Fold these 3 entries.
Entry 1:
Amino acid sequence: MESINSFIKETEFDLKLQDAYKECWSRLIRAVPNLSNEDFSHLSNPFLIKCLPAYKKAKKKVLFVGQETNGWESFRVTLETFHGGNQESNRDDIINYLQWMYEDLRFHRKWDYTPFWKGMRRLYQAIDANGIDDGFLHTELVRFDLNQKRLPQDVEDLLQKEYNVLPMEIKALDPDIVIFLTGPDYDDRLRETFINSYVLGDHLKFELINGFKKNELIRLIHPVLPYHTYRTYHPGYSLRKENEVFIPIEKTIINLINNETNK
């Protein structure tokens, strides 16, 4: 019976995640024609993730959230290849393909040399020192990029509003710990993301942590988020000041997780 329950629980991760990605897909497809031809030609695929086996087996389920993609192939080419993605079968094929891209990225680990991946892996190893290697998942706050850069404000507002999947993604994955490596410059996008979540009427709250300014480290509170949810700097910044910035934040996050009771 225990094996059956574990199988059902692990299978539900996949089913709920796919449901999250499918739920507002048609809205995304309807929004794309509102972009200029130039913007659409340089728009990346939306970043969709797959619930990997190591995460399913991990005792501490940790989800990291980055800023946005940094070159995730062409959404225009994907839509053309899969005949527009506006039919249910095309939609499902695209979602499967984009999840395969994530699985492929994680398997080959070709970006491990970058500050983002170095910092993220280091935090994960500190959070779950005895855990499964590579047992975390990571996603992005902004699902797209334009020419490997952050979207222009009007484009970001449009696409994020129509394809606001992060709250549903978190709900599907049911993590114990969520770490936003987005830095303070993305706080407005964070607020918009959770204002527009399906938990209507609940706004994201920022709770100060003793010893840190709001831009350095803060707890995020929302019904969709687990108790241990924090926002801190992108490792591209914090690792440049490792002793002054990264290490104090790392130690504090670990102490908070180890010393405070989950709520």
Note: The radius of gyration is 18 Å.
Entry 2:
Amino acid sequence: MSIALPDYYFRVRENGALVFRVDTEDRNQRLAMNQIAVVNLKKGDIKPHGDRVLSADDLTAIRAWMEERKALLADREVDDILRTVDHLNLTAQWAQSRASDDQLAQVTDGLLLAMHDLRSTLVRKKADRLSQNHGQDS
């Protein structure tokens, strides 16, 4: 039974990935992964590894991965924020029903400052959006 492997493997790292070409044609029937490039998502850079020259197929596969990865990270970012809303609700319930005075003393100032900062940012951003939309209606 043979499993078809992808032509490329992307080892994810903080700002992108190391790109490997997957080679299953080794004469000893071993799997080989040869690094061909380094990707920086923030800068949009694709740098060949060493003195390699990337083929059009390499570049097409890498650019497709970059677009898919950016979309995935954007989806995860929104999901993380929605989870934060759940955590805030759970925190409110904890503070109301289970937290001891000592526990509340440990977290209250930090939570209040963070929530004030978040509220200020959200209100400012919403006002900006409303003023932009109002300007478009005129």
Note: The mean pLDDT is 93.
Entry 3:
Amino acid sequence: MANQKNNKELKIVKAWCKGCGICVEFCPVKILGLIDEKIHINDIDKCIKCGFCELRCPDYAIYLEEDKNEK
């Protein structure tokens, strides 16, 4: 995976977040948190784009999106 170019961006749909905190618990680099019972990215620069948050979110409120500018 080190040789793969990952052109994805972490996105959040706060309106869909129910504040369960599952994504926070599964984040291996601990960049996610809850503020006012909604998901929050504490330090986007430390995100390794592993997709664990997206995989575990029951409400599809957090996801990795392909960079539309890269082709």
Note: Residues 13-66 form a domain with the Alpha-Beta Plaits fold (CATH 3.30.70.20).
